[in-house]
């Protein structure tokens, strides 16, 4: 799980396109969990 998060954080994106985080409910192994994802918006 942490490896996926690290890959998201290591994306080479302009800092101006980073708008913060949002929480998304995802189903992992049949369990519903809340995860934070980077919210990206390109100008």
Describe the structure using short key phrases.
1 helix, 43 residues, 49% strand, two-stranded antiparallel sheet, alpha+beta
Mean pLDDT level: 65
- How are helices and strands ordered from N to C? HEE
Spatial strand sequence of the major β-sheet: 1-2
Total strand segments: 2
Distance between the ends: 30 Å
Q: Main sheet, how many strands, which sense, barrel?
A: 2 strands, antiparallel
Query: Radius of gyration over alpha carbons?
Result: 12 Å
How many alpha or pi helices? 1
Give unreliable regions as ranges: none
Beta fraction of the residues? Answer: over 45%
Please give the domain count. Answer: 1
Structural write-up:
This protein has 43 residues and is an alpha+beta fold. It is 19% helix and 49% strand. The chain is built from one helix and two strands; from the N terminus they run αββ. Strands 1-2 form a two-stranded antiparallel sheet.
